[in-house]
Specification:
Blueprint (H helix, E strand, L loop, with lengths): L5 H4 L1 E7 L5 E7 L10 H18 L13 E5 L16 H7 L11 H4 L4 E10 L7 E10 L3 H4 L5 E11 L7 H5 L3 E5 L1 H4 L6 E9 H4 L3 H4 L3 E13 L2 H4 L7 E3 L2 E5 L3 E9 L5 H20 L7 E5 L4 E5 L3 H27 L14 E7 L2 E7 L9 E2 L2
């Protein structure tokens, strides 16, 4: 192609950069973008300039971010599992044509059948290790329910988008307002590349450029994290209009999303780990998990009311629920155990012994008058002499 027609010139490309350097593009009409004809060389040169300007002006974490990750003191007591929204009117077969990992198999693929690709746990109390840094972070634990093949599929990507955070909790903000904000971070296939394990730890960057506050100002304050699960896939024209309908179409990609999840009460402190606070934060959930597992709901049928038939039926929970409950119980207990060992291995400071000066008693005389004087360095009053 030697040049671009005036129709093509009216297509403007808007680029945005995520934290991991993953570029995505959306095109829309903008006749003010350019006029005339550009050849490929000019187009590439201007694109390089544009990308450079975007990179320099973006609020990316500073170099100091690498050494200023927040330290997770207390995690959320249970993980959450947002569901991809496919609407109400669709067949499971048609849904699997668009959502490639979707399968209706409650027995063996319980969470995928409920369109829940991730279990996500956030640090809820975080120690700021360097309040003078440009950035700190919120540790996040992500467990994938997808296979390694599905999580690495770049043609049909399942990822997590994090939008700009709130200081405190804003009750009046709407999901539409949140999704109009910049995406500050995402968990995409590149995060899982070379990692065969099902769970990873990531760090959501919190930088003063994006929150309008210094990191020191975060101490003692809470933030709200806003995120959603996103799925994008390539589909042909024959599938584009069948149910479930794409929530959105971007660059020919069929997009599906979960609802916006809001994690509030994430607190920043400068104190050290406190075992009693940790136990208090976890104990209620530990008791609930124990009670649930002791009832053996995945082995022994129990009575449940069925709304459709308006009658009581006998059922058993899926094994995935009991396995998840056991994992959560193990995690909470291991955190308490780890904290106990950590605090026990930290030596208490040895009190410094202060030498107490010894008092001396002397006898002073002046003629027939005698006086006794005591102290660490006693001296006779004027006119008196020490008695030999």
């Amino acid at each position: 192609m030697g040049g671009y027609s005036s129709k093509l010139i009216k297509r403007k490309c808007q680029w945005s950069l995520t934290f991991f350097g993953y570029w995505k593009r959306s095109a829309y009409s903008a006749s003010q973008f350019v006029s005339g004809h550009w050849d490929n060389t000019v187009m590439r040169r201007n694109l390089v300039v544009l990308l450079t300007l975007v990179l320099l002006s973006s609020s990316l974490p500073s170099i100091s971010y690498a050494s200023s990750n927040g330290e997770a003191l207390i995690w959320s007591a249970s993980p959450i599992r947002p569901s991809i929204n496919l609407g109400n009117s669709y067949s499971h077969i048609d849904a699997s044509k668009k959502l490639k990992w979707y399968v209706w198999d409650l027995e063996n693929k319980y969470f995928l059948s409920n369109r829940q690709p991730f279990s996500i746990r956030f640090a809820k109390e975080i120690k700021i290790t360097d309040k003078n840094a440009n950035c700190t972070s919120v540790p996040i634990s992500i467990r994938r329910e997808l296979s390694e093949k599905d999580i690495l599929d770049t043609s049909n990507q399942t990822y997590i988008e994090f939008f700009q955070i709130d200081i405190g909790f804003n009750k009046t903000i709407t999901p539409t307002q949140i999704t109009a904000r910049p995406i500050i971070y995402n968990i995409n296939p590149s995060n899982w590349k070379g990692k065969s394990q099902e769970e990873i730890i990531a760090y959501l960057p919190i930088c003063k450029d994006s929150i309008g506050k210094s990191i020191a100002d975060l101490v003692g304050n809470e933030i709200t994290i806003n995120f959603r699960i996103t799925y994008s896939t390539n589909v042909g024209e024959d599938l584009m209009n069948i149910e479930p309908k794409c929530t959105n179409v971007l660059e020919g990609k069929c997009m599906f999303y979960s609802g916006i999840s809001r994690i509030f009460g994430v607190k920043f402190i400068q104190s050290d780990l406190n075992l009693e606070s940790l136990k208090y934060a976890y104990q209620e959930t530990i008791d609930k998990e124990k009670d649930y597992l002791q009832a053996k709901p995945c082995d022994v049928p129990y009575t449940s009311h069925d709304q459709q038939s308006n009658s009581n039926i006998m059922l058993k929970d899926n094994n995935a629920l009991c396995e998840s409950s056991q994992r959560n119980l193990d995690f909470l207990n291991s955190e308490i155990s780890r904290a106990s060992k950590l605090l026990q291995s930290t030596p208490s400071p040895t009190p410094t012994k202060v030498a107490v000066a010894k008092k001396i008693l002397i006898t002073c005389v002046k003629g027939k008058i005698t006086k006794k004087v005591s102290g660490t360095n006693p001296k006779c009053p004027k006119g008196y002499k020490i008695k030999a």
